[in-house]
Automatic annotation (TrEMBL):
InterPro entries with a match to the protein in the record: Marvel, Synaptophysin/porin
Keyword flag Signal: no
Keyword Transmembrane: yes
Topology class, membrane: Multi-pass membrane protein
Subcellular location(s) per record: Membrane
Family membership: Belongs to the synaptophysin/synaptobrevin family.
UniProt-recorded name of the protein: SYPL1 protein
Species for this entry: Phaetusa simplex (large-billed tern)
PANTHER family: SYNAPTOPHYSIN, SYNAPTOPHYSIN-LIKE PROTEIN 1
Coiled coil regions in record: none
Length: 245
């Protein structure tokens, strides 16, 4: 990122304007303060979603096996269709038990959400470096505020799409790992075999990830105005009105 930022500065900034001048003053203004919040909330967003690990458990009774607990462990990126339940000794079940997989592949929504959070995190670092070390460049060169505005608008829209996509996928994940999976398991329909739902790992952290997605959406959406105020799009009408008399 340092190399990318250096090359970007060399393109956008004339040599006479370049030079590091550390100034934390912009962090006390809404533009910088909100960027810090975006940086923090992006960390929580990808940590609560990308770091999840859980399992769902069933109690299986069949020929020669009584109340055997079988589990299926799942985690990010939630390709549930590749997750198989541990077998309750198929031979003692009279050969009626076959591999049982969970249903659904929710990796696209989960990876979209986490990838956006990581990219937001990296962009916030780059933006804060500019705000703190190159405040004079940011304020004097109109290209920086316009670029910042475009990225902020796009990111706010992507947070809207990814958060609602991930919230929908999370609801489906809960269905695919809950008690409703038993009617779809063929091995549980074999004569003399009964399956009962035991438990599933709490998904409170995944619920929290959706909340952080919404907070990121609000922050990036609200930050559009403060970034827009620093662009010549906002300042140009003022100059015209001042020059018109």
């Amino acid at each position: 990122w340092c190399g990318f930022l250096r090359s970007l500065l060399s393109v956008l900034v004339p040599p006479r304007m370049a030079g590091l001048r550390v100034d934390f003053g912009l962090l006390l203004e809404p533009l910088g303060f909100i960027k810090v919040l975006e940086w923090i909330f992006s960390i929580f967003a990808f940590a609560t979603c990308g770091g999840f690990q859980g399992e769902t458990a069933l109690l299986v009774s069949c020929k020669g096996v009584a109340n055997k607990t079988v589990t299926a462990a799942f985690a990010y990126p939630f390709r549930l269709n590749t997750v198989v339940f541990s077998a309750p000794d198929p031979k003692r079940c009279g050969g009626t038990w076959t591999d049982v997989y969970l249903v659904g592949n929710f990796s696209s929504s989960a990876q979209f959400f986490v990838t956006l959070a990581v990219l937001s995190f990296l962009y916030c670092i780059a933006a804060l470096v500019v705000y703190i070390g190159y405040k004079h460049v940011y304020q004097q060169n109109s290209k920086f505020p316009l670029t910042d505005l475009a990225i902020t608008v796009i990111t706010a829209f992507l947070w809207l799409v990814s958060t609602f996509s991930w919230a929908t996928a999370l609801a489906d994940i809960k269905m695919s790992t809950g008690a409703s999976i038993i009617p779809g398991i063929e091995s549980c329909k074999a004569p003399g075999t009964t399956c009962r739902f035991a438990s599933v790992t709490s998904m409170k952290t995944l619920n929290v990830s959706v909340v952080f997605g919404l907070l990121n959406m609000v922050l990036w959406g609200g930050n559009i105005w403060f970034v827009y105020k620093d662009t010549n799009l906002h300042n140009q009408p003022k100059r015209i009105s001042q020059q018109s008399p």
